[in-house]
Structures are given as C-alpha cells and as structure tokens.
Design goal:
35% helix; 8-stranded antiparallel beta sheet; Cathepsin B, Chain A; 2 domains; single chain; alpha+beta; globular
Length: 434
C-alpha cells in the first residue's frame, strides 16, 4: 500500500509540474497575443506586465519605451504554448501603448547552430500556428537576396495587427527565425522593409538641444546581449534610425560574425558597400587610425608610446612575436590611458579637428559609426579591446563627445572628454541614406 501511495504521489507530482509548465507557457507571450486579439495595440504597459507574469523583464531604455526579455537570464517565456523563445522586445510609441513586438525564436549567435531538421520543423510549426491564429490563409510572401544569402518573409494580416515570420538558412548553416507583430498594414515586402526610407532634409530637425550646450540624436536602442555582435547591433541601430527593419542577425549572417570573437570591421564595411543599393545607404570612412593598420605603423606607435610611458612610469608595450606572430590585442593589452591621450594628442588631425567632423555630421542629423579602443571601462568590458559604438552628439562648451553603446538602459547617451574620445578612436565612419 505504501508503494502504491508513493507511486501515486510521484505521478501526482509529475502532473502538477506539467500543469505548472503549461500554465507558465500559456500565461506568457500567448496571454498578450491570443487574448488581446484585435486590441493588441491598445495594450498598456501595466496590462502587458500583468499578462506576462515574469520577473526577468528589463527596461531596454531609460525612457521606458522598450521592455526586453532574454533567455540569457530566464527560461520562462514561451510562444504558442511550447515554443521557447530566445528574446522578445516590446516597443511603445510613448510610455503607455504597445506599438510592436519583436521575437527571436532562434538565432545562431545566442543558440548556436541548429540542425536543419530542427530548424525546418520549427519553421513549419510556426507557419501553421500563425495561419490558425490570424485566420489569414494567404500570407504575403517575399524574399531578398543579399550577397547570395536568401532572406525570406511571410506576413499574415488581421484587422488589428500584422504578424511577420522572417527566416534564413543556407545549405551549410541555419541562421535565424524571427517573428514580428506590428500595427495593421505596417509590415511591407522585404525589399521595402530592409532599405533606408527617410526624408534626409528632415534629419536636422531630430537634433535635440539641451540648455547645457549638448546637441544629440536619439538613436533607437538595440541590445546586442552577451554576443560579440557590437558591430552588427550598431549597424542595425543606424538602419532603424533611417526606418529600415534589417536586424543584427542579418548583418551577422552577411559579415560571417562569430558570437564569441565578434565581427571584423572590414567585413562589416564590405557588407555596407556591397549592399548599398539594396539598402539605400552610403558609407564613407572619415578617419582611420594608421597606428594599427600595418606592422610598421604598430612598431612606430609602440616606440612613440613607450617613450611617453617611461616618463609616466607606465608599463611599456612589446611587439615581439608570440608563437611566431604579432597579436595586436596582446601588444596593446598594457596600454595606459594617460600616456595614450598624450601620444594621440600629438597625432593628426587632432582632437579639435575630430570635434569639427563630429559637429558637422550631428548638426545635419547624422550619427557616426565609431570604432574605439576600450580601456579602463569596467562596466561591461574588462580588458583592452576593440569595440563599436555610435557618436550621437557633442558639447562644445564642455569639450565632450556624446556617444551611445548597444548595451541597453543607461547607455543611450553618455559623455566623454574630447581628448579621451580622440585618443581611443580607431575608425570614424559615416553611414547615410541615399
């Protein structure tokens, strides 16, 4: 009898656990999409948070216009019952009403590479579920080829909202599966969705002017997460600023990004140049730090830096080969900021001309792609390395550069002394709409 009771108790426990799992699944994203229906985009923030019932949500921006869920911190969010998702971002036109939902079901940056069988099975399941959910049995199909990579999209339309399924996979690798919910009629065919569509004459009106002299641009936040996708996220932020919906996962696919080691800046620039017509953008290098472009340039930099470092009592740099090769990140690891600022202050064009370039671009409403050498910043990056940011403003009164990082709330707008900003600059790139 005890054995029977024990088996019954175990069975009851399993049933309760499964019931709890299903309740969690049904009370997550489904609670918003299924139950709100045509009124999806009348949902207010408080109602959204109540419906999701999740603790692991974070504001993606300080102005509370984005809420982000990431599986990096929680395994709780599901879509359509049992489809576990990787990331979800809830967008708000103001601080009140929902204006869009962006869901990453799968991407190789966060999930590794899925087997093709799992990818295809998930894709087919989502197609069937979205058809049933929306009642639209003839979704609009479109595709776009970028550098021999085919991006595909299906759009289901209802009276209250559009639902778009976007994916890409090659014979060798699976790339991503995303779902987007937007207001009715907002989602267009891919050829229109990915290109920059903005009135360039109106961009100057986006410059926000503060009483303290700060001039800055509010560039849409994209959170790169724990991936080494800083370059890809920055490019996505530019494209969103110009009203394109191309995302970091497409850029990562085109640039062959590595989730751990990141994206080659040269590869990313090549992507922009090769796809400039399809994306309707131009890219132009405004400055390149020649110290790190050639071995001779690096050796001269080390010699000049070591002379200053010796006066400051700072560690010297060493260009001796490591296992037969000169590894740039190993050479620059001991860099000391004060010595670097002193050396770079002597190099052309210098901080003031650098500020002029920034001012000219920002005043026209154009942010700048900023590749930098990160030193002494313990918040996210803990060692000397190269990193991609956006310069989105300046302050001539205080001699500061305003910049933004793709790390979520608190990084929308930050200030840095001009001399330091110039010292760490590696590449300055203009990305502008055609």
């Amino acid at each position: 009898m005890r054995t029977l009771n024990r088996h019954f108790s175990l069975l009851l426990l399993v049933v309760l656990l499964l019931a709890g799992r299903l309740a969690t699944a049904q009370s997550a994203l489904d609670a918003v999409v299924h139950r709100r229906g045509r009124a999806l985009f009348q949902t207010e923030q408080k109602a959204l948070l109540r419906a999701l019932k999740l603790e692991k949500l974070t504001w993606n921006t300080q102005d509370h216009t984005q809420i982000r869920y990431s599986r990096e911190f929680s395994d709780e969010m599901f879509l359509f019952g049992d489809c576990q998702i990787t990331e979800a971002v809830f967008l708000f036109l103001d601080k009140r009403h929902l204006s869009g939902i962006e869901v990453s079901v799968y991407n190789r940056g966060d999930c590794g590479i899925w087997p093709r069988k799992k990818f295809d099975s998930t894709l087919q399941s989502l197609k069937g579920t979205l058809t049933k959910l929306t009642g639209d049995r003839q979704p609009q199909k479109s595709s776009k080829s970028l550098q021999n990579n085919k991006i595909q999209q299906l759009v289901w339309r209802t009276a209250g909202y559009d639902a778009a399924l976007r994916w890409s996979a090659s014979k060798a690798d699976t790339e991503f599966i995303n779902i987007q919910f937007a207001r009715h009629g907002d989602i267009q065919p891919l050829s229109q969705e990915i290109r920059a569509e903005v009135n360039t004459a109106s961009l100057a009106t986006r410059v926000q002017k503060e009483v303290d002299g700060t001039r800055w641009l509010n560039v849409p936040m994209v959170n790169q997460g724990m991936k080494g996708y800083c370059v890809d996220a920055v490019v996505e932020r530019f494209m969103r600023y110009y009203n394109s919906s191309i995302d970091q996962h497409i850029i990562a696919q085109l640039a062959e990004s590595d989730p751990l080691y990141g994206t080659s800046l040269a590869a990313a620039i090549n992507v922009l140049e090769k796809n400039s017509n399809k994306l309707r953008i131009r890219s132009k290098r405004l400055y390149d730090n020649e110290n790190f472009r050639t071995l001779d340039g690096l050796r001269k930099f080390v010699k000049d830096y070591n002379r200053i470092a010796a006066k400051n009592g700072a560690p010297k740099l060493d260009t001796h080969p490591l296992n037969g090769a000169v590894i740039l990140t190993e050479v620059i690891r001991p860099l000391e900021l004060r010595s670097l600022i002193q050396l770079r202050g002597q190099q052309r064009p210098g901080p003031q001309k650098f500020l002029v370039k920034v001012q000219e671009s920002i005043d026209r409403g154009y942010p700048l792609f900023w590749s930098v050498l990160v030193l002494d910043e313990k918040e996210v990056i803990t060692q000397t390395s190269f990193h991609a940011r956006i310069i989105n403003g300046y302050n001539k009164k205080t001699n500061e550069i305003i910049y933004t990082d793709s790390w979520g709330p608190g990084f929308e707008r930050r200030a840095m002394p001009l001399e330091r900003a110039w010292a760490i600059t590696d590449t300055l790139l203009a990305i502008t709409p055609r």
